[in-house]
Amino acid sequence: MTILMAIESSCDETACAVVKDGCEILSSIVSSQINVHTLYGGVVPEVASRIHVENISTVVCEALQQAKVTMDDIDAIAYTQGPGLIGSLHVGVQAAKAIAWAYHKPLVPVNHMTGHIYANRFVTELQWPLMALVISGGHTELVWMENDWDFKVIGTTRDDAIGEAYDKVARVLGLGYPGGPKIDKIAREGKPHYTLPTPKTASPYDFSFSGLKSAVLQMIQREEKKDETINVADAAYCFQETALQSMVKKTMAAVAEYRPAMLVLAGGVAANSRLRVLMEEAMKEYPEVKLVIPPLSCCTDNAAMIGAAGYVAYKHGLFGGFDAAADPALLMPGEE
Ligand code: KG4
Ligand code: ZN
Q: Residue 336, Cα to own-chain centre: how many angstroms?
């Protein structure tokens, strides 16, 4: 049995979890800063780091208490090394190092995006080869994994990440931050009243969302010029359908070409209710490929996922030293 403490602070969630054997959550504490950042319409990095400093100790103590373990039971400390906001990352990295030093525990640095992928380990055993659609506020990637801990990015966004597009479109529609869940909700009442351009890219597995985002903005401005107001639910619906249909189509092209045993969704946007329906429908064409979607609590940022990926890194002996630093632009393992 291996028990890891995991720490995550890459953006605006201060989180600590205790995870057994990479697949069982003994505790997962997430302290969200959303209420504060909502006041500014988005994450303010300096504010985020300060709140991490204020909350990290409490979050760590609560994770131990809820898991009903002491530091004697912990085999290693996994932490998010990057990518993310540098000031935010520093807090988690320093906390992990301090705990590891004080209690003589090994350190396991983890790439945040691998954490999102391995969050699916809480649903089921992963099967290889595996295709992961990693969709968050900072990333939109198709990751091909022939084997455990073997990552190859086969497609990425040429401009905005999908979560970023959701957040920006929500902002221009006056829905506030964070935009993803707000668009998800209001789009359920929307109708296909507007036509938006389908994103185009040269490579079949690459994504693009900035043109679509600008098209929504132009549509609002056109309506304003005509002294008309946009129907927010319809605009949200049309944006979401266009973005998701294009993303699902590209993912299916990758599934058809690569023939994985499993397709997993990962990252905050995987929490989207419409995406879940569209994916399930599209995957009916590939009954031999298992579709796995993480539970909602494991889609958006949390530390349990860092414990899941950290466990695999631990088993591979991928330890970090006390000189390891936070890396805001950290690439996937194996990427140049
Ligand atoms: O993975 P995550 O929590 O943080 C990053 O690593 O970026 O993802 C956050 C992103 C935000 O852009 C947020 O708007 C989006 O995930 N998001 C959603 C939903 N819930 C969160 N997007 C669409 N639908 C949702 N239900
Ligand atoms: Zn994330």
A: 21
